[in-house]
Amino acid sequence: MSHNDQVTLESKDLSKTYYSTDPPTQVLNGIVLSVKKGEFLVVMGASGSGKSTLLYNISGMDRPTSGNVFLEGRDLTSLSDTEMSRVRLTRMGFIFQQAYFLNNLTIRDNILLPALKAAPKEKEIAIARVDKLMERFGIAHVGQHGTTQVSGGQLQRASLCRALACEPSILFADEPTGALNSSMTVEVMDALTDVHSEGTTLVMVTHDPACAARADRVIYLKDGLLIDSRELGKWSRVQAMQREDDLLAWLRELGF
Questions:
Q1: Which of 29, 71, 125, 185 supports an S-S bond with 224, CB 3.0-4.6 Å?
Q2: What is the CATH number of the domain that holds 91?
Q3: CA dihedral for 154, 159, 164, 170, sign (positive or negative)
């Protein structure tokens, strides 16, 4: 199947039902999705529409009730938990609203940890890569600081460095700016835009149209269904406001 060369991630008839509730809650309903290599895709929708559940299911952090997820042609749904953990560690990067750093480690050691875990024999390579990433995202000078000694924006840029430390084929971000003020939000989105411009595939959940306007494409979920999708093309600072306005008009039509 030649089209797979260009598809990094796809889901087929992906559904997720939680049976712990009475009656059971269907959160995702037959999602068919395809993410191209190097694409920046944003998932939007009202609160409770299934955005984060979708992210967790396509990234193997949670297992769908039915349907399949393929990463680089490999069926993730057929993997054991151990195999899935390995794929997450080596082929995927994650950024969440909270940084989830270990408080007893420095910023640099937190960033290094997954890279060393992924390839213990390549310690020197990992260290060099992490130092380069920290330099690139302007946090090299806080590398020896504790997690409570840096700003929220610095902490999220550190999360980004950690996510990129294993050179993943895809990066997942769940509300990465959700806990940040507006200037820190721009700081983190600039860093993500930079990463995407170098060819990293990016899937992000956000409720912020200004963040979403940076994507190549936005999909909209409602009650666990993918109801619409919009191509935005390449982002440029010059057209940022116009893109945001256009996107907002589209979102309002959908009842956002």
A1: 29
A2: 3.40.50.300
A3: negative
